[in-house]
Amino acid sequence: MEETLIDISGAAVSAANETIVKQTTGIVSWFKQMMTWETLFKALGAFLVICIIWIAYRLIRKGIRSIPEKKLPAARSELVQRALKYLFYVVIILYILSLFGINLAAIWGAAGIAGIALGFAAQTSVSNLISGLFVISEGSIHVGDTIIVDDVTGVVDEIKLLSIRVHTYDNQMVRIPSSKIIDSCLTNNSYHKVRRMTIPVSIDYASDMEKALEVLSKAPELCPTVVKKPAPAVWYDGFDGRGINMVVAVWFKPDDYTKTRNDIHIAIKKVLDENNIVIPISQMDVHLVNADAQGDEA
Questions:
Q1: From CA 80, how far away is CA 258, in angstroms rounded?
Q2: Cα(298)–Cα(291) distance, integer angstroms
Q3: pLDDT 10s digits, 142-165
Q4: Is the separation of the CB atoms in 152 and 186 below 8 Å?
Q5: Out of 1.20.140.10, 3.40.50.970, 3.30.70.100, 3.40.630.30, which CATH number does the structure's domain 195-274 have?
Q6: Residues 280, 202 contacting (CB under 8 angstroms)
């Protein structure tokens, strides 16, 4: 019995040794076949090509970064750099696959089928992606702009392909999908260097209209953030049951919105008070009738 077990163990060890020897011999044989001058030159050539592509990628990326922001806004620069990065990876991968003799036509075919399938499965994401390309290429929004989209008002913090992130005036982060930007009416309060503010003012019917026009024209001069060009303006806007309606319009830089709004209201009240021009107050006259007196008269 013991002799039988010894024979079985010896046979197993012998078989294992033979398998190891065959595998080792196969690896060594493959290594010898690969380690030829032809293979070495191919590997060296592939390494040099990859290095050239990498150097070209770095130089192009550096050139894009050196373009002034006036010619290439930050959002577009980031988009171009990201596209260049993806292109670099794709070129390197395809080149390496071609070295191993892999059929690239089959890969492109499979990628096309997969792309169609993914497109149907993620129509919303694709819509946002395409919309993001339009938003960035159009250049109507920049980081730091104050925008209004539907009922959201905020300052742009980040512009991506799929969405735009803004923070509201109460410091809440709001993510707006790129497709929403394209489909909705967008208002950018920071797009131009200056913007206009109009303040409605009502004066009493007893006021001298020509004097009121002259007095209100002095109010913008008391506001340091109001710009001279375009010049401020004052005009009449009709009559109603309360009083005579007027409008004061001033121009200012978008960053000075809050200060300008406060200063112009203070200035309007000040010049009106100094010239005894009354702002009418809505009032109601109530007449009390004595019911007992009415009964006696009846």
A1: 36
A2: 11
A3: 888 899 998 889 999 988 878 889
A4: no
A5: 3.30.70.100
A6: yes
